[in-house]
Amino acid sequence: MSREPSHSVVAKPLLEVDRVTLQYVTPERIVTATRRVSFDLQAQDRFVLLGPSGCGKSTLLKSIGGFIAPTEGEIRLAGERVREPGADRMFVFQEFDQLLPWLSVVDNVVFPMRATKRFPRAEWRDRARAAVEKVGLGRFADVFPHTLSGGMKQRVAIARALAMEPKVLLMDEPFAALDALTRRRMQRELLELWDDIRFSLVFVTHSIQEAIVLASRIVVMTPHPGRIVAEFDATRFGHDQAGGSEFEAFSERINRLLFAGEEIAHG
């Protein structure tokens, strides 16, 4: 596995994925989704798992969330082994229907607080409204999800997750179903939100451009089963650099790695 050098002082990791193998059973066979995957997430990292469909990215994210137990290895959050789901890890998924249609925007954001009793009841609505304001939807706080566009629904989902003040925000291709312009706008808004709040992020995508724009660190995975073949520091990139010659050269470098991984997987 190639690794670009980093000259920053490395603190104790917030999240440790340690030689994790994930398997699931189908009627025909046992499928190995990932094999001995290891990486660390530092606090306030924007960490992107990049790879083609079928490389185990989403399965790995669910395991970090506590929904799938590793077959081998372990996952640790703040030094404690992850054994089950918890409010310290919040998800944002690709689907627009992750909001409850019978609740208003603000009540959707309140919902996980009510379910987990994470904060005092008297704080729920104030916290929810503050989160909705941060994603730019303050004037839509009392409307219902069916009146919102796809991008607006995803902003509500992000607000709902961040209102819980999780240790790690887990995002599984949350912008993949959006049109190209809305997707770019949501990428920019996510970065602006990170600048404001500095949350810790694990983001799954199969888009090279999206990975480079959003990440401070990128790991590249190969399919069948998923393994990490490279890790890169992407802090020098962002929306201002997208489309520049260095950006394009970096993108092509990652593309070659992904293509080589596909050849190995199917060879």
Automatic annotation (TrEMBL):
GO MF annotation list: ATP binding; ATP hydrolysis activity
Native source organism of the sequence: Siculibacillus lacustris
Similarity-based family: Belongs to the ABC transporter superfamily.
Keyword annotations from UniProtKB, A to Z: ATP-binding, Nucleotide-binding, Transport
Protein name: ABC transporter ATP-binding protein
Superkingdom in the source lineage: Bacteria
UniProt xrefs under CDD domains: ABC_NrtD_SsuB_transporters (cd03293)
Residues covered by the ABC transporter domain: 15-250
InterPro entries on file: AAA+_ATPase (IPR003593), ABC_transporter-like_ATP-bd (IPR003439), ABC_transporter-like_CS (IPR017871), ABC_transporter_ATP-bind (IPR050166), P-loop_NTPase (IPR027417)
